[in-house]
């Protein structure tokens, strides 16, 4: 009997193997490979063509509204209680309002922000938030243009994608309710959280690295810049937090580590790609948005729009990028809306300064630029 079952099992295994090899499509899917580093360093982004096409389709920028008719009347003198777009012509103002409705609240319409019985009324919190978001958009397109947003710029649609509340926002993670005693402290780890790719890493790195505008810029670091320790150094927990942030950025942009880093020398700036400098500024830009534009709105938002700890909704890399290294396929979305490319605000504080270039870290001599592919 034992021999019978042995032979039977072998026969079943043989036929299953034949079926698996003969009936399964083992062809490798067509790949889209983009080299973004030096030859021989395997610095490339590899995706299936199907995934690239799907992502591109999901990130199409909306067509701009028809150009506004010329006119000399200003919105600030024609309408009541216009604070941010005071010096924009009436026709340009109305065109932008229609576009904002399509970008943010296509189903709710104007009533999402306005009391249509009295358009000058500020009773709806959405109108107060929208006013500040307009100022933020102008700030991003003017003060951050050279450092991060570039000529493509951003509009309300970049984050909202036709929804009143952007899909990719976040709140400070309070973590689980834990009992007291020796097991109360878990270093913010060992919880399956999407913010760190479901890894066993600190699950709330965003609050420290993307929400604290006063953070020490040297805190995001994995290894030392010297061969031997010269200071107390960073604990291993800080390195784990840094890895958590890097995972978030990788998934938010739909790229791997080699998009910015040469993995043979992660900390070496001279062997990194230009995208690393852009990302360096992007981290600081997100802190600027969260710390200077969203956090001050805490008292403006109703309790149901706040997080478990009473904090406002905040942005991260995914909010704009949505899984692509360039939001909305790199479309120059502000070209058709010049009123969003410069500051026209009259009722807000001076925007915070944009940080200078990233520090130059000890590095080997610069390598030649990668050959075009």
TrEMBL record:
InterPro entries the UniProt entry points to: Multihaem_cyt_PRC_cyt_su-like, Multihaem_cyt_sf, Photosyn_RC_cyt_c-su
Low complexity compositional bias, start-end: 59-75
SUPFAM superfamilies, per the entry: Multiheme cytochromes
Post-translational modification: Binds 4 heme groups per subunit.
CDD domains the UniProt entry points to: CytoC_RC
Taxonomic superkingdom: Bacteria
Sorted UniProt keywords: Electron transport, Heme, Iron, Metal-binding, Photosynthesis, Reaction center, Transport
UniProt feature, compositional bias: Pro residues: 352-373
UniProt region (Disordered), positions on chain: 56-75, 342-373
Function: The reaction center of purple bacteria contains a tightly bound cytochrome molecule which re-reduces the photo oxidized primary electron donor.
NCBIfam families hit by this protein: photo_cyt_PufC (NF040706)
Entry protein name: Photosynthetic reaction center cytochrome c subunit
């Amino acid at each position: 009997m034992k021999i019978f079952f042995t032979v039977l099992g072998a026969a079943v295994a043989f036929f299953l193997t034949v079926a698996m090899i003969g009936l399964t499509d083992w062809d490798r899917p067509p790949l889209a490979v983009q080299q973004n580093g030096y030859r021989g360093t395997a610095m490339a982004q590899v995706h299936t063509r199907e995934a690239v096409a799907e992502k591109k389709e999901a990130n199409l920028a909306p067509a701009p509204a028809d150009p506004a008719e010329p006119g000399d009347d200003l919105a600030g003198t024609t309408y009541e209680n216009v604070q941010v777009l005071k010096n924009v012509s009436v026709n340009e103002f109305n065109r932008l309002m229609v576009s904002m409705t399509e970008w943010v609240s296509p189903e709710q319409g104007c009533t999402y922000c306005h009391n249509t019985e009295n358009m000058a009324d500020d009773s709806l919190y959405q109108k107060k938030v929208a006013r500040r978001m307009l100022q933020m958009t102008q700030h991003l397109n003017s003060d951050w243009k050279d450092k991060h947003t570039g000529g493509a710029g951003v509009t309300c649609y970049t984050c909202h994608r036709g929804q009143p509340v952007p899909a990719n926002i976040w709140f400070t993670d309070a973590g689980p309710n834990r009992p007291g005693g020796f097991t109360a402290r878990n270093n913010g780890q060992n919880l399956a959280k999407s913010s760190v790719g479901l890894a066993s890493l600190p699950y709330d790195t965003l609050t420290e690295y993307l929400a604290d505008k006063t953070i020490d810029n040297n805190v995001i670091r994995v290894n030392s810049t010297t061969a031997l320790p010269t200071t107390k150094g960073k604990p291993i927990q800080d390195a784990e937090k840094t890895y958590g942030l890097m995972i978030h950025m990788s998934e938010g942009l739909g790229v791997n580590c080699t998009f910015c880093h040469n993995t043979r020398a992660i900390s070496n700036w001279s062997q990194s790609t230009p995208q690393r400098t852009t990302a360096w500024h992007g981290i600081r830009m997100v802190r600027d948005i969260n710390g200077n534009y969203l956090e001050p709105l805490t008292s403006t938002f109703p309790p149901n729009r706040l997080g478990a700890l009473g904090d406002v909704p905040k942005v991260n890399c995914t909010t704009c990028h949505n899984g692509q290294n360039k939001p909305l396929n790199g479309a120059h979305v502000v070209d058709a809306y010049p009123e969003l490319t410069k500051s026209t605000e009259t009722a807000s504080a001076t925007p915070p300064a944009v940080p200078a270039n990233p520090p130059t870290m000890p590095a080997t001599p610069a390598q030649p630029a990668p050959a075009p592919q």
